[in-house]
From TrEMBL:
PROSITE patterns: ACT, D_2_HYDROXYACID_DH_1. It comes from the Bacteria. Catalyzes the reversible oxidation of 3-phospho-D-glycerate to 3-phosphonooxypyruvate, the first step of the phosphorylated L-serine biosynthesis pathway. Also catalyzes the reversible oxidation of 2-hydroxyglutarate to 2-oxoglutarate. It catalyses: (R)-2-hydroxyglutarate + NAD(+) = 2-oxoglutarate + NADH + H(+); (2R)-3-phosphoglycerate + NAD(+) = 3-phosphooxypyruvate + NADH + H(+). Pathway: Amino-acid biosynthesis; L-serine biosynthesis; L-serine from 3-phospho-D-glycerate: step 1/3. Belongs to the D-isomer specific 2-hydroxyacid dehydrogenase family. Its EC number is 1.1.1.399, 1.1.1.95. The keyword Oxidoreductase applies. This is D-3-phosphoglycerate dehydrogenase. GO terms for molecular function: NAD binding; phosphoglycerate dehydrogenase activity. InterPro entries: ACT-like_dom_sf, ACT_dom, D-isomer_2_OHA_DH_cat_dom, D-isomer_DH_CS1, D-isomer_DH_NAD-bd, NAD(P)-bd_dom_sf. It is an enzyme of class 1 (oxidoreductase). It comes from Lactococcus lactis.
Length: 398
């Protein structure tokens, strides 16, 4: 069986594409004939998906460009690459903490504005540099909001640099908790971050709960001279509130990856053009992760790193596997079992997991009769509440 993967849009890492497994071809057929897409920021909200499309791999952590509920309703599994760019974002955040603390933006502007020869400028430097004296991050308190892939890395490395680190994340997973240094103190009240931290960095998705989290109510609680960073999502920043906090001497420096005319040319704001995950290494990591997830799904039916279906893993050790995407309603598993029994087929393993309105089933069968299998697939395709049916052959046993 050969599967066809299509790259959509630009900036898909070619090195990762060249590493594709045997049995997969890239960009050999049209979009309408492809089994899966690999994309980055290409928008899909108005896209008409073909019935042949089984999966979309997003070579990055975010997936706002993909209509995940629409895809789920059509039986298209959407994957992302969580943590693939985490190190890149972490390094930028740490560098901006130091950048802001050492007054490098105004110092550079002052120095490059000097006139005269080197001796004249050297003399001006000796007299003028005191105006740009900064401080050190060691011994200061960093507040990290969101302790996932990126936030936990920032917290751990900041602690290694001598900072006291407090973190807030009411949804911290067990996996990320294990990766978090025991020196990082978790707090249960968001207000503690704003009240106690000398530096605050946000690493959360944009949700109803986090939109405009950097608002006046929270910022007014901060110490004078706090350094504030947002390299997560633009929606988290209440721009007017940040400007007010700067004007009142609360925020000393604001660094963000999201441009706005409100911030352009402001001496205490440093903007970067969405560079957090824009490194050669991050691009390669994210593309590899997305490709690995898509290839695994197409070949075995297993789901890893999906944003619209649950994680489902089950070693394939039977001749055939049927995968089902179905509406998450009562009695579907019973109906599946009855359909298999009606064809006199034995179920070796069954895994069914639900997520929201949809569920996913792996059905491993001790059967090689292609006629029975075809009849079973037809039963499933005709059944209510079943959206997508796939029959996967274990070539090592058939």
């Amino acid at each position: 069986m050969t599967y066809h993967i299509k790259t959509i849009g630009n900036n898909i890492d070619q090195i990762a594409l060249d590493e594709i497994d045997e049995g997969f071809l890239v960009n050999q057929v049209s979009e309408a004939e492809s089994d899966a897409f690999i994309c980055r920021a290409q928008p899909f909200h108005d896209y008409e998906f073909s019935k042949a499309l089984l999966a979309i791999g997003r070579a990055g952590a975010g997936f706002n460009n993909i209509p995940i509920e629409k895809c789920a309703s059509k039986g298209i599994v959407v994957f992302n690459a969580p943590g693939g760019n985490a190190n890149a974002v972490k390094e930028l955040v740490l560098s901006m903490m130091i950048f802001g603390t050492r007054n490098l933006k105004p110092a550079n502007k002052w120095l490059t504005g000097q006139k005269g020869d080197d001796n004249t400028i050297d003399g001006a430097v000796e007299h003028g540099k005191k105006a740009f004296s900064g401080s050190e991050i060691s011994g200061k308190t960093l507040g990290v909001i969101g302790l996932g892939n990126i936030g936990s890395k920032v917290a751990n490395d900041a602690q290694r640099l001598g900072m006291k680190v407090i973190g807030y994340d009411p949804y911290l997973s067990i996996e990320h908790a294990w990766n978090l240094s025991h020196h990082v103190k978790r707090v249960n009240d968001l207000a503690e971050i704003f009240e106690k931290a000398d530096y605050i960095t946000v690493h959360t998705p944009a949700t109803d709960e986090t939109t405009k989290m950097l608002n006046w109510k929270n910022l007014s609680k901060c110490k004078k001279g706090v350094i504030l960073l947002n390299y997560a999502r633009d929606e988290i920043t209440d721009k007017e509130a940040v400007l007010k906090a700067i004007d009142e001497g609360i925020v000393r420096f604001f660094g963000t990856d999201f441009g706005s005319e409100k911030f352009y040319h402001h001496p205490q704001v440093f903007l970067t053009p969405h560079l957090g995950g824009s490194t050669v290494e991050a691009s390669l990591n994210c593309t590899r992760m997305a490709l690995d997830s898509v290839q695994t799904y197409l070949k075995t039916g297993e789901i890893i790193n999906s944003v619209n279906f649950p994680r489902v893993l089950q070693e394939l050790n039977t001749p055939y596997r049927v995968t089902l995407i179905n509406k998450n309603v009562p009695n579907v598993v019973a109906q599946i079992s009855l359909a298999v029994a009606a064809e006199n087929i034995n179920i070796a393993n069954i895994v069914n997991r639900g997520q929201g309105d949809y569920a996913y089933t792996l059905l491993d069968l001790d059967e090689k009769d292609e006629g029975k299998l075809a009849a079973l697939v037809s039963r499933f395709e005709a059944a209510d509440n079943i959206i997508r049916v796939r029959l996967i052959e274990n070539q090592s046993l058939v």
